[in-house]
Amino acid sequence: MCWINKIESIFNSTRCSEEDKVRFAVFMLKSNALYWWNVESVAQPNVLQTMSWEEFVIRFKTQFYPRTAVRQMEEDFLKMEQGNRSVRDYTEKFIEYSQFVEHYVSSESRKVKRYILGLKPSIREFVIAMDPATFSLAVNVVEVTERNKNRQGEEKVVEKRKWEGSSANFRSSASFRRPKFIKSDNYSSKQPPARTCPRCQQVQQETVNPNRKDVTDAERQVIYQGISLYLKGVFNAIHLIIFGRTTHN
Predict the structure, then answer these.
(1) Sign of the CA dihedral 50, 53, 57, 60?
(2) In the chain, N or C terminus with fewer CB closer than 10 Å?
């Protein structure tokens, strides 16, 4: 079929007359095709003068495109989808297979519908909304849609890289660094001196006076928290003794 289309394209370019089409096509035959035509010429000596171009095409297809092969191509055509192919690759494949399944693309509307059906869903919905009337218009719409989507994808990648770069710079900046808490040497090295209780004769740690000048702010805060917890415990014990007895009586 590709060879037939190529020959017909030459006919249109050279304005070949109907009576000269078969002669020109026979001149372009090679190898097995030329051998086939020689056999036809022996069976019908005047075939070159009497055969029309339409009849030549039918005999050519019958000889070199068996029905089983055409049927397989029909099945492949009906299952054809764009998949990971570009729009151009899909379109070229669609045109190639359309030559063997003419009854599926017998009209322009059927051809457009079948072409749109095999597109990617992301592209197909835009093309359906445009409702192209011809196959060439549908191809143009699909190509424009693909270019727009590719451009949008590239812009998203650029924006993502910019965001990742700014985020990395922010994390590495000094303003984002957590302050390091340095343990005070005075607080860690100073230990209150031990003393012996005159009653129980047990060694006890001397209570640090928070008003001493050598006490740091951190130590003073810890002391105040300890005193607060101690007083709270004493208050709870007194409250339990007083009100607990009252409730019991």
Answers:
(1) positive
(2) C
